[in-house]
Amino acid sequence: MAQVAAASARTSSSSSAPPSTSATRPKFAPTSSTIPLANACADIARRVDSYLATTPASESADIADLRQRTKERVRESLGVINEALRRYSIDELAISFNGGKDCLAMLVLLLASLHYHSSQFPPQRIHTVYVHSLSAFPEVDAFVNDCATLYSLDLIRLPTPMKAAFQKFLDAKPDIKAIMVGTRRTDPNGADLTYFDETDHGWPKFMRVHPVIDWHYAEVWQFLRELDIKYCILYDLGYTSLGGTTDTHPNPALLMERGVDSTGEQSFKPAYTLIDDDKERWGRNT
């Protein structure tokens, strides 16, 4: 964990730029007051529109193919969110957000959709549940706080276990009928999910909405980096799937060849350099 603390201090004001630029921008920059939701939605929609409309003049065939596939995923996911907004009012819809890359991509897509439907869904805060590990990373907690500020999240924090946390959330928000979650098909229990699945097996009753269920790991990173979206700094330290401090480690697949930095700590490549979905959870004990 010394690596996390040291690297956090070094990188808290730096950023990964999109693949096509060498500029650096802040990934984690807490602000003192909440940004109006309408402003955040308009900014994100502008970025999404630009991404979908832009085709770089020169890039490798592999990157061009990844870009095209990611654009298709974006359009599919926007369609799922549009359907959710057709079925449910904004007061009946919530998101599950834990600061990870997948639910961050989902949140970005929701913000864009809310802008496209701004006349139907007037600006307000987004109902959000953050179910956190009992051993949550401070960096994850800080990033979730920052997102609550940046994206007007009406955040309720609840500890695991997940089932009990969702019940408490629904008790506090009885009008909620559907919750968007960032599960992908390669996640545990994700293989058979569809875009809309009602809960079962003793879970509290609500509709689970899975806008990014069919996304691949590399597509998530292509999207977030091309839109220049701030993400948790742990991803720059080789973490590719975020749990708690007791069950999550930098991904060994990203260990750098020299392996040790100037402080004597192991060095890892950033999460976005990983390609294979199958290796995403190599840094998790579970």
From the structure above, extract its key features.
6-stranded mixed beta sheet; globular; two-stranded antiparallel sheet; alpha/beta
Structural notes for this entry:
There is one protein chain. The chain is α/β, with parallel strands linked by helices and 286 residues long. The protein contains seven helices and eight strands. The protein has helices at 2-11, 37-53, 61-87, 101-116, 138-150, 162-172, 217-226, and strands spanning 93-96, 126-132, 153-159, 178-180, 196-198, 207-209, 255-260, 266-268. The strands form two sheets. It has a six-stranded mixed sheet. Helix 2 packs across helix 4 (101-116), helix 3 crosses helix 4 and helix 4 (101-116) packs across helix 7 (217-226). The longest helix has 27 residues, at 61-87. The protein is globular.
Strand content: 5-15%
Characterize the overall form: globular
- Side-by-side strand order of the widest sheet: 3-2-1-4-6-5
Largest sheet properties: 6 strands, mixed
Helical amount: 25-40%
Number of strand segments: 8
Task: Produce a short descriptive summary.
By secondary structure, the chain is an alpha/beta fold. The protein has helices at residues 2-11, 37-53, 61-87, 101-116, 138-150, 162-172, 217-226; strands at 93-96, 126-132, 153-159, 178-180, 196-198, 207-209, 255-260, 266-268.
